Amino acid sequence: MGDEGLFGPRTVTWHLHADPAMWIAGVCSLYLQALHPRAVAAVVQNSRFQDDPLGRLMRTGNFVGTTVYGTTAEAEKAAERVRAVHRKLRGTDRQTGAEIRLDEPELLLWVHCAEVSSFAGVVRRAGFPLTAAQLDRYFDEQRRSAALVGLDPAAVPGSSREMAAYFARMRPQLRRTEDSDLIYRFLHRPFAPWWLLPVNLGYLPLGHLAYSVLPDWARRIHGRPAYSPPAIALGLRSFRAAMLAVPDELRFRYPGGHVQRAVDRLGREALPNPAALTGR
């Protein structure tokens, strides 16, 4: 096999991140990230996401896809670009007026934990077979992603218990703000060009489904109603089943083609498959 990159087919990350429920999990993570007042203020003040919503989502997806499925050199190059952007950008704390650096470890850690906890939690709820031990392995593996953005891996939660303890510590700092409301509204509106009407119509219920799968405590802070538990379960599993019905040769080419390029590089034994984790 060629260069497996930072993860490779023997990791939980390799198989979990190729699951189609990651589409919903990624949007869910944005709702969760928005509850940190300083983190969301920095995003709103520095990002063009409202002018270029599809481009912003695709750039984030491409970064995650490259770091998981790209070569080691590709992952490190993508990470250096992100670190360089974070070093330059500044925001302003809306409450105190203090400067916010986007490369502050506290903010980087919040974004990391919001992402990976959402990825694992939502994909698991959608039907991806993940044992408690494999979930711990996933959080431990994701310390490699944390290191890419400049965090000390030893300071990053590496198990379910450590992740739960982190969120318990953070909850007193989280709140609903004008910025979090802006993100909520943004993630509930069509994001594709007007001429992609079917895409927009299909996204609208998924945008609220992604909100509905937030942890209960996070939805209470947002203060917005969610779908009912039966509707959530049906929506998650139906979406996943419909996407899994798409042939691998087509499904793994979107978005960005990262998975397919990894399979082309490493061979068909590298195809993501939850069954490959059985017994590991």
UniProtKB/TrEMBL annotation:
The protein's name: Oxygenase MpaB family protein
Superkingdom of source: Bacteria
Pfam families the UniProt entry points to: MPAB_Lcp_cat
InterPro entries according to UniProt: MPAB/Lcp_cat_dom
Domain ER-bound oxygenase mpaB/mpaB'/Rubber oxygenase catalytic as annotated: residue spans: 14-243
